[in-house]
């Protein structure tokens, strides 16, 4: 049993921000900005952090860099909030090694996406079942349902079967697109069939957060560069003020939608974090998107409009 007392579980809720991985202008890892960015997220009131996710450029890191990011983040957070570590990889052996290292450092659980291009329910179930058995019952698992990237559709029936069969499956990162009907179905079937209710945190940049909260989501697991909005919206929903939550959300929606663009979204997110002083450089490690002069001007206009609206 791992010693961390703040493991994720079925009751986890709030904003588990997907952390960017900062690099210097020359592409080298920037550990000082890891500290700054961690402080930034904590100051904005996040309930937890998720590091080494897809938007954290995890596949572009060496094994040594992966360890360095984990060690630096855990040291800076110092137990203030739970940290989930993304461990998705084509090799099950690598998944097990990284998950064990993360938990030894104090992780609250791991996030796992399926290997690419599994085609049938049986294949998807067998993949997750194999990894869950490999990791064992003491490592909490967040299933990442992100078919836009993985090419894998994880059906409601597969999710339900995994919840029934593996107690360590405690969380779903819900970012199927469109997927709100799936969210409703999971909640409805859990209620009707007496199934264990797991935590559901939503992704997709938070683009549909108000609707997803109304359908039974417990919060967000995404990396929008204004995490305080996500935190405030979730808090308003928890306080029974859905209209106020949506009014606040709508102020940020133009910029959120802009940041969510496929292709250049990560570059936009890191540029916003850079302009907000959270990281020293907006560098996206190659191969990755680059912003041109028009992109920079457009982003500045949207950020200025947001500031005026908030004022």
TrEMBL record:
<protein>
    <submittedName>
        <fullName>Dihydrodipicolinate synthase family protein</fullName>
    </submittedName>
</protein>
<dbReference type="InterPro" id="IPR013785">
    <property type="entry name" value="Aldolase_TIM"/>
</dbReference>
<dbReference type="Pfam" id="PF00701">
    <property type="entry name" value="DHDPS"/>
</dbReference>
<comment type="similarity">
    <text>Belongs to the DapA family.</text>
</comment>
<keyword id="KW-0456">Lyase</keyword>
<dbReference type="InterPro" id="IPR002220">
    <property type="entry name" value="DapA-like"/>
</dbReference>
